[in-house]
What does this fold into?
Amino acid sequence: MHVRAPLKREGIMAGTRLIINFFFKDKTPLEVNAEFPRLLPAIKAAKAKASKINEGLPNEEMTVTVTYHICRHDDGDACDGKVEI
Ligand SMILES: [Zn+2]
It folds into this structure.
């Protein structure tokens, strides 16, 4: 991955923001776990080291969040509730 400027400069907070959004058609969460057994532990380990952008400030961003849900988007139905990992 390319880095166009130093991450650490005075008054600047930069870092790597990883955004993942996967949809596994016709699979339950258990089936996804069975197919990718290293995915959940890796996500949990990464989440444990992640931090919020502007933590404690009015413009704090929730950048330590991972959820899954049964998605019924393509069926035109409401999705099931999101579960935090
Ligand atoms: Zn959905």
The first strand starts at residue 8 and ends at 9. DSSP finds two helices and four strands in the chain. Residues 18-84 form one domain. The beta strands are 8-9, 12-13, 67-68, 83-84.
